[in-house]
Prior knowledge:
Layout: H1 3-11, H2 15-37, H3 43-59, H4 70-90, H5 105-124, H6 127-138, H7 143-150, H8 154-174
Amino acid sequence: MDEKELIHNLKKKDEKYLIKTIEQYSAYVCTIIRNVANNFISECDVEEIASEVFIKLWKNTKKLRKDGIKAYISAIARNLTIDYLRRKHREVPFEEIELTDSFNIEDEAVNHIEEEMLKTALNDLKPKHKELLLRFYFLYQSISQISKEMNISISSCKTELHRAKKELKSILVRKGYDYEK
Protein backbone atom coordinates (compact mmCIF):
# COMPACT_ATOMS: atom_id res chain seq x y z
CA MET A 1 0.00 0.00 0.00
CA ASP A 2 1.20 3.49 -0.84
CA GLU A 3 2.41 5.31 2.28
CA LYS A 4 0.98 8.67 1.20
CA GLU A 5 -2.46 7.10 0.74
CA LEU A 6 -2.17 5.46 4.15
CA ILE A 7 -1.25 8.76 5.84
CA HIS A 8 -4.01 10.63 3.99
CA ASN A 9 -6.66 8.16 5.17
CA LEU A 10 -5.30 8.00 8.72
CA LYS A 11 -5.65 11.77 8.91
CA LYS A 12 -9.27 11.33 7.82
CA LYS A 13 -9.64 8.96 10.82
CA ASP A 14 -10.61 6.01 8.64
CA GLU A 15 -10.34 3.04 11.04
CA LYS A 16 -9.87 0.62 8.16
CA TYR A 17 -6.50 2.26 7.50
CA LEU A 18 -5.51 2.05 11.15
CA ILE A 19 -6.01 -1.71 10.92
CA LYS A 20 -3.92 -1.79 7.73
CA THR A 21 -1.20 0.25 9.47
CA ILE A 22 -1.17 -2.17 12.40
CA GLU A 23 -0.94 -5.15 10.03
CA GLN A 24 1.83 -3.53 8.00
CA TYR A 25 3.97 -2.13 10.82
CA SER A 26 3.34 -4.20 13.97
CA ALA A 27 6.34 -6.50 13.42
CA TYR A 28 8.55 -3.45 12.77
CA VAL A 29 7.29 -1.71 15.94
CA CYS A 30 7.79 -4.85 18.05
CA THR A 31 11.35 -5.21 16.74
CA ILE A 32 12.16 -1.64 17.77
CA ILE A 33 10.64 -2.20 21.20
CA ARG A 34 12.63 -5.41 21.73
CA ASN A 35 15.85 -3.76 20.54
CA VAL A 36 15.45 -0.68 22.73
CA ALA A 37 14.46 -2.77 25.75
CA ASN A 38 17.37 -5.09 25.07
CA ASN A 39 15.20 -8.08 26.01
CA PHE A 40 14.56 -6.74 29.54
CA ILE A 41 10.80 -6.95 29.09
CA SER A 42 8.40 -9.79 28.46
CA GLU A 43 6.68 -10.47 25.17
CA CYS A 44 3.42 -9.43 26.82
CA ASP A 45 4.98 -6.04 27.65
CA VAL A 46 6.22 -5.72 24.06
CA GLU A 47 2.67 -6.25 22.79
CA GLU A 48 1.28 -3.77 25.32
CA ILE A 49 3.75 -1.08 24.29
CA ALA A 50 3.08 -1.81 20.61
CA SER A 51 -0.64 -1.29 21.24
CA GLU A 52 0.16 2.03 22.91
CA VAL A 53 2.21 3.03 19.86
CA PHE A 54 -0.74 2.58 17.53
CA ILE A 55 -3.13 4.28 19.97
CA LYS A 56 -0.79 7.27 20.15
CA LEU A 57 -0.48 7.26 16.36
CA TRP A 58 -4.28 7.27 16.04
CA LYS A 59 -4.65 10.14 18.53
CA ASN A 60 -1.96 12.20 16.79
CA THR A 61 -2.66 11.62 13.11
CA LYS A 62 -2.54 15.37 12.48
CA LYS A 63 1.19 15.28 13.26
CA LEU A 64 1.86 12.83 10.43
CA ARG A 65 3.80 14.22 7.52
CA LYS A 66 3.56 13.04 3.94
CA ASP A 67 7.20 12.00 3.88
CA GLY A 68 6.77 8.95 6.04
CA ILE A 69 5.01 7.10 8.77
CA LYS A 70 7.85 4.72 9.58
CA ALA A 71 10.11 7.29 11.24
CA TYR A 72 7.17 8.65 13.21
CA ILE A 73 6.05 5.31 14.61
CA SER A 74 9.63 4.23 15.31
CA ALA A 75 10.14 7.40 17.39
CA ILE A 76 6.89 6.72 19.25
CA ALA A 77 7.92 3.09 19.86
CA ARG A 78 11.36 4.09 21.10
CA ASN A 79 10.03 6.81 23.41
CA LEU A 80 7.23 4.68 24.85
CA THR A 81 9.68 1.84 25.49
CA ILE A 82 12.09 4.15 27.29
CA ASP A 83 9.19 5.58 29.32
CA TYR A 84 8.05 2.06 30.18
CA LEU A 85 11.54 1.08 31.33
CA ARG A 86 11.77 4.24 33.46
CA ARG A 87 8.36 3.57 35.04
CA LYS A 88 9.30 -0.04 35.69
CA HIS A 89 12.54 1.08 37.29
CA ARG A 90 10.75 3.65 39.47
CA GLU A 91 8.41 1.03 40.91
CA VAL A 92 11.18 -0.07 43.26
CA PRO A 93 10.32 1.18 46.78
CA PHE A 94 12.63 3.93 47.95
CA GLU A 95 13.73 1.89 50.98
CA GLU A 96 15.07 -0.84 48.69
CA ILE A 97 17.36 1.47 46.73
CA GLU A 98 20.93 1.06 47.85
CA LEU A 99 23.46 3.71 47.02
CA THR A 100 26.78 2.08 46.46
CA ASP A 101 30.19 3.68 46.35
CA SER A 102 29.94 3.57 42.56
CA PHE A 103 27.00 6.02 42.59
CA ASN A 104 28.29 9.52 42.05
CA ILE A 105 26.11 12.57 41.54
CA GLU A 106 28.96 14.33 39.76
CA ASP A 107 29.18 11.49 37.23
CA GLU A 108 25.42 11.71 36.66
CA ALA A 109 25.70 15.47 35.99
CA VAL A 110 28.55 14.90 33.54
CA ASN A 111 26.53 12.20 31.77
CA HIS A 112 23.61 14.61 31.40
CA ILE A 113 25.85 17.34 29.97
CA GLU A 114 27.42 14.86 27.54
CA GLU A 115 23.99 13.69 26.44
CA GLU A 116 22.89 17.27 25.68
CA MET A 117 26.14 17.92 23.80
CA LEU A 118 25.58 14.76 21.74
CA LYS A 119 22.02 15.78 20.84
CA THR A 120 23.25 19.16 19.65
CA ALA A 121 26.07 17.60 17.63
CA LEU A 122 23.69 15.08 16.01
CA ASN A 123 21.54 17.95 14.79
CA ASP A 124 24.61 19.49 13.13
CA LEU A 125 25.32 16.34 11.07
CA LYS A 126 24.39 15.83 7.44
CA PRO A 127 20.86 14.35 7.40
CA LYS A 128 22.05 11.02 5.96
CA HIS A 129 24.75 10.67 8.64
CA LYS A 130 22.32 11.58 11.39
CA GLU A 131 19.87 8.95 10.14
CA LEU A 132 22.58 6.29 9.99
CA LEU A 133 23.76 6.96 13.54
CA LEU A 134 20.24 7.09 14.93
CA ARG A 135 19.27 3.85 13.22
CA PHE A 136 22.43 2.07 14.39
CA TYR A 137 22.80 3.39 17.94
CA PHE A 138 19.28 4.40 18.98
CA LEU A 139 17.02 2.04 17.04
CA TYR A 140 19.59 -0.75 17.33
CA GLN A 141 19.22 -1.75 13.71
CA SER A 142 21.81 -4.00 12.12
CA ILE A 143 23.91 -2.89 9.14
CA SER A 144 21.87 -5.16 6.87
CA GLN A 145 18.57 -3.70 8.16
CA ILE A 146 19.83 -0.16 7.65
CA SER A 147 21.10 -0.89 4.14
CA LYS A 148 17.72 -2.36 3.14
CA GLU A 149 15.70 0.49 4.64
CA MET A 150 17.92 3.22 3.18
CA ASN A 151 18.34 1.43 -0.16
CA ILE A 152 22.15 1.37 -0.04
CA SER A 153 24.59 -1.52 -0.24
CA ILE A 154 26.00 -3.05 2.93
CA SER A 155 29.51 -1.82 2.09
CA SER A 156 28.20 1.71 1.46
CA CYS A 157 26.33 1.53 4.74
CA LYS A 158 29.51 0.58 6.61
CA THR A 159 31.50 3.31 4.86
CA GLU A 160 28.88 5.99 5.50
CA LEU A 161 28.52 4.91 9.13
CA HIS A 162 32.28 5.25 9.56
CA ARG A 163 32.16 8.72 7.96
CA ALA A 164 29.21 9.69 10.16
CA LYS A 165 31.18 8.72 13.28
CA LYS A 166 34.16 10.77 12.10
CA GLU A 167 31.93 13.75 11.34
CA LEU A 168 30.26 13.47 14.76
CA LYS A 169 33.64 13.25 16.48
CA SER A 170 34.84 16.32 14.58
CA ILE A 171 31.76 18.31 15.59
CA LEU A 172 32.12 17.28 19.23
CA VAL A 173 35.81 18.25 19.30
CA ARG A 174 35.02 21.58 17.63
CA LYS A 175 32.37 22.24 20.31
CA GLY A 176 34.91 21.57 23.06
CA TYR A 177 34.18 17.99 24.00
CA ASP A 178 37.34 16.44 25.44
CA TYR A 179 37.55 12.78 24.55
CA GLU A 180 39.99 10.04 25.48
CA LYS A 181 41.26 7.55 22.94
